[in-house]
Amino acid sequence: METSDPTLAQLGWRPFFSEQVSAEQRNDCHPVRVMAVHRGRVTVAGEGLEESISSSFPMPGGAEDRPTVGDWLLIDRNTRSLVRILNRTSLFKRPAPGDDRRVQLIAANVDTLFVVTSCDQDFNIARVERYLVLAREAGVRPVIVLTKADLSPTPERLVDAARALQSGLRVEPVDGRDLQSAARLAVYCGIGETVALVGSSGVGKSTLVNTLKGSNSIATQAVREDDGKGRHTTTVREMYRLVVGVDGGGWLVDTPGMRELQMSEVASGVLEVFDDVTAVTIECRFANCTHADEPGCAVRAAMAEGALDPARVERWRKLAHEDAVNSGAAAVRRSRLKRGSSRR
Ligand SMILES: Nc1nc2c(ncn2[C@@H]2O[C@H](COP(=O)(O)OP(=O)(O)OP(=O)(O)O)[C@@H](O)[C@H]2O)c(=O)[nH]1
Ligand SMILES: [Mg+2]
Ligand SMILES: [Zn+2]
User: Fold this and answer.
1) CATH fold for the domain made of 92-254
2) Contact 39, 67 (CB under 8 A)
3) How crowded is the C-beta side of 230, counted as CA atoms within 13 Å?
4) Which part of the chain is CATH 1.10.40.50?
5) What's the CA-to-centroid distance between 233 and ligand 2, angstroms?
6) Ligand nearest the Cα atom of residue 301
7) Which of 118, 207, 227, 261 to mutate to test the pocket of ligand 1 (most atoms within 8 A of CB)?
């Protein structure tokens, strides 16, 4: 943290959190926010307090019962141990890659999600849609940030392609290295507000955070020359205070670049992000229409008429299918865990 002693309100403390704290807990505990997550430990900040504490929880429960960056915790005034994770206003998570048992918590209590993608090889509509589903599911406002606009002769075309995904979607092209260009993003990150940056490795998340916090303390690294992919430079999730704009502003959560973003238990997010497609599916003659060769399929009719883009329908189909398969697996896993047969 760069700026000295933020108040609880500046840290993002709100009635939603204070209302969860009993009078007794108010006496015995400090409310603190998780600024960074390291292996087994978290860095927390409260009023006039910043320290590293063990993140192990006295009463481990479900997969979401561990602190992640952005969380509000109660810690014991004397022992400094973790007493409680307060209920979250939002939680970003994904199935942990390569491991079908765990959920990876990305960030909690986030107001706005910057879906960061660059105007070069990384730009991919299907990936942006995945992040939009995640944002919808977590109930957080998404903003598409198109970095490296300086490297593209026609960034407007990408801006238009992204805007077409959702009515009213904010899309911001920037040169993340340039303060003047990046400064317009400060409006999404006012006092006490929290913005999380997510996206592939090398798109410039850390570069943008460095620019907006006014110092180059976070390591960044050039993308690989052969394929333009990043080098997974950032390995911890950490919050930084924005210094652009009025009164020091809010918080930016830098995250490690994601290799893959599997969909699981995001059915309502898929429904909302693809509301144009799902509105048409209701018109199909059969409720369980697969939109392949059934008679009376409204989706195929809409595609034939040009009312629905076949490529978008195909992306929807893929996401919905992936979500159904993964959600089914997650439900089986949970019921096994409940029976205690495969706890590890
Ligand atoms: N030209 C240009 N280069 C940029 C811009 N943003 C980032 N870069 C460069 O892209 C490279 C990767 O940037 P990083 O900030 O390390 O990317 P990251 O998203 O944090 O990557 P990970 O930490 O690996 O997830 C660096 O060499 C940056 O200087 C931009 O807007 N324009
Ligand atoms: Mg980084
Ligand atoms: Zn159909």
Assistant:
1) Rossmann fold (3.40.50)
2) no
3) 24
4) 267-339
5) 5
6) 3
7) 207
Q: Is any atom of ligand 1 closer than 6 Å to the C-beta of 172?
A: no
Q: How far is the CA of 312 from the centre of ligand 3 (A)?
A: 15
Ligand 1 probe mutation, 106, 121, 220, most atoms within 8 A of CB: 220
Q: What is the CATH number of domain 267-339?
A: 1.10.40.50
- Identify residue 101 by its one-letter amino acid code: R
Share of the chain above pLDDT 70, in %: 92
Cα–Cα distance measured from residue 146 to residue 301, given in angstroms and rounded to the nearest whole number: 34
Of the chain, the end-to-end C-alpha distance in Å amounts to: 36
- Give the per-residue pLDDT at 2: 46
Let me know if domain 8-88 sits in CATH 3.30.565.10.
no
Share of the chain above pLDDT 90, in %: 72
Identify the sign of the CA torsion 241, 12, 257, 161.
negative
Task: For residue 300, give both structure tokens.
Answer: 């195929």
Give the closest residue (by CA) to ligand 1 atom 12.
Answer: 202
Ligand nearest the Cα of residue 148 is 1
Q: Per residue in 48-83, pLDDT tens?
A: 899 999 887 665 566 678 899 999 999 999 999 999
- Looking at the chain, the domain(s) classified CATH 2.30.30.140 span 8-88
Where in the chain do CATH 3.40.50.300 domains reside?
92-254
Instruction: Spell out which residues have Cβ within 5 A of ligand 2, the ion.
Output: 205-206, 233-234
pLDDT, averaged across the chain? 89
pLDDT of residue 198: 95
CA–centroid distance, 7 to ligand 2, in Å, is: 27
The Cα 272–Cα 288 span in angstroms is 19
pLDDT digits (tens, 9 = 90+) for 225-242: 888 899 999 999 999 999
| Dist CA 121 CA 105 (whole Å) | 27
Residue 187 has pLDDT above 80, yes or no: yes
